[in-house]
From TrEMBL:
<comment type="similarity">
    <text>Belongs to the MipA/OmpV family.</text>
</comment>
<dbReference type="GO" id="GO:0009279">
    <property type="term" value="C:cell outer membrane"/>
</dbReference>
<keyword id="KW-0998">Cell outer membrane</keyword>
<keyword id="KW-0732">Signal</keyword>
<keyword id="KW-0472">Membrane</keyword>
<protein>
    <submittedName>
        <fullName>Outer membrane protein</fullName>
    </submittedName>
</protein>
<feature type="signal peptide">
    <location>
        <begin position="1"/>
        <end position="20"/>
    </location>
</feature>
<dbReference type="Pfam" id="PF06629">
    <property type="entry name" value="MipA"/>
</dbReference>
<dbReference type="InterPro" id="IPR010583">
    <property type="entry name" value="MipA"/>
</dbReference>
Length: 249
């Protein structure tokens, strides 16, 4: 999930709110870092960029204490946001003749059920901007805490999108076909990538932590068969620092 940089910097400059444990509570990790991931979906080249962190959003009931990392038991339904990068034909010779894709804001909901160290989740978001389709993910994670400071989450995930999404990022229209030389291609919606990940959090203070992610995804189905895809394997690395903010009302 993503947040705007000005709000992020303002949040980091403030101390965590000291609130009584009455009323409903909201909590989230907010921070900054760096990430490296494929330049575009299907690219063989990696690109480094800032990582604006807004994650582990949690809602707590009256009298329920806030969690350190959002890993409370039970069902949680929370809002979720993502900022998806665009694509430019100049990014690669493989994209010559294809249309630009603008950056996209994706907004939706996350359903997460946690029982002890295990959790499963479903994420569904609507795109606004570069694509107007529905995208999401379904996955599972397992929480491992070797000590009081370090927490690890190995997990597996499948990423999916409807045909509006897959045809934007993996399709070739008749016009693009005439310009690029690729045959017209209209992929169906469904799972476009599957993979595994390892997340880590190391607590420096009760609220401040270093976080990292290593992710490996592989394009699958119609997405993997797109004629311009250079590389089906899509790894990503992220490292940053977050502060956990909580609010009671």
């Amino acid at each position: 999930m993503r947040a705007s940089l000005p709000l992020l910097l303002a949040a980091l400059a403030l101390p965590p709110a000291a609130q009584a444990q009455e009323g409903w509570g909201l909590a989230a990790d907010i921070g900054l870092g760096a990430e490296t991931e494929p330049d575009w979906l299907g690219s063989k080249d990696m690109e480094a960029s800032p990582w604006i962190i807004f994650r582990n959003f949690d809602v707590t009931a009256p009298g329920q204490p806030a969690t350190r990392d959002g890993s409370s038991d039970g069902l949680r339904v929370v809002p979720t946001f993502n900022w998806r990068g665009g694509r430019d034909p100049g990014d690669s010779e493989a994209l010559t003749g294809l249309d630009d894709i603008d950056r996209t804001i994706e907004a939706g909901v996350r359903f997460r059920y946690t029982r002890g160290p295990a959790s499963g989740y479903l994420v569904v978001r609507k795109g606004f901007g570069g694509h107007d389709g529905l995208v999401g993910a379904v996955g599972a994670k397992y929480r491992i805490a070797p000590n009081e400071r370090l927490t690890l989450w190995p997990g597996i995930e499948g990423k999916f999108g409807d045909e509006h999404f897959t045809r934007t990022f993996f399709g070739v229209t008749e016009g693009e076909s005439a310009r690029s030389g690729y045959e017209a291609y209209s992929p169906d919606g469904g799972f476009y990538a599957v993979g595994a990940s390892l997340e880590a959090r190391y607590a420096l203070t009760p609220t401040l932590a270093v976080v990292g992610e290593a992710e490996y995804s592989r394009l699958t189905g119609d997405a993997a068969d797109a004629p311009f895809v250079e590389e089906k394997n899509q790894p990503a690395l992220r490292l940053g620092i977050v502060n956990r903010f909580s609010l009671r009302f």
